[in-house]
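Lecture 7 notes: from sequence to structure.

We start with a single chain of 242 residues. Read the sequence below before looking at the structure.
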Amino acid sequence: MQRYFAKSINDGIAYFNDDDSHHLLNVMRAKIDERIEVAFQNELYLGQIICLKPLQVKIISKLDDESELKNDVTLFYCLVKGDKLDLVIQKATELGVKHIVLLTSKRTIVDFKKDDINKKLKRYQQIILNAAQQSHRLCIPTIEGVYKLDKIDKTMLKRHNFIAFEKQKGQTKHTLDLFNDIKPNESVSILIGPEGGFEDEEVELMNRLGFVNISLGSRILRSETAAIACLGQLGLILESKQ
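Now the structure, written as tokens:
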């Protein structure tokens, strides 16, 4: 059954944004009395289409759903070239993150013009929305940035904060032990560098701020691979505790 995020629910009727209404009506060819899943404010409902123009969906009942991680997971991610960033944003959403924070570091070779950032963030938010619907999330992750790495401050930190560092390679037992120490409902952040990785002084700065070095294995991973692999491993461990 298709799942859509409602923009509002009033008097038992769900309403949707223009893009989702268009998709339901013109792509999925929705019909009167057809049923869909409606996600709204971290809750899931069974809905029945009662009007096509404008699209209105009557809420029939509340549904049980356990698709969200109990932990609030943030991905700090340094900009990469081309459509690699699109891929990471999509997969991070599918893997359960709640927040994505875009960064630049000394080895970042991508330069977003200031005037383009809001336009790009809007497009990334659409990627997130599509991925959240496809993966049957209950909430739509947020995305923000672009911040300089050295501008991260303690107010942005979570209960547990990890930085993937290629010079830490091979020590995966340490990484698994750290992930296993995370309790349900504790917040977590993962920091992934750009192509070329972090410089040593950047890692030292993040360590002083509170980030702990972790290894993702004995091989050097591409930035986008590192992000997806790390979030996948983290999510598997966190879900085992739910």
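The first strand starts at residue 3 and ends at 5. Keep this in mind for problem set 3.
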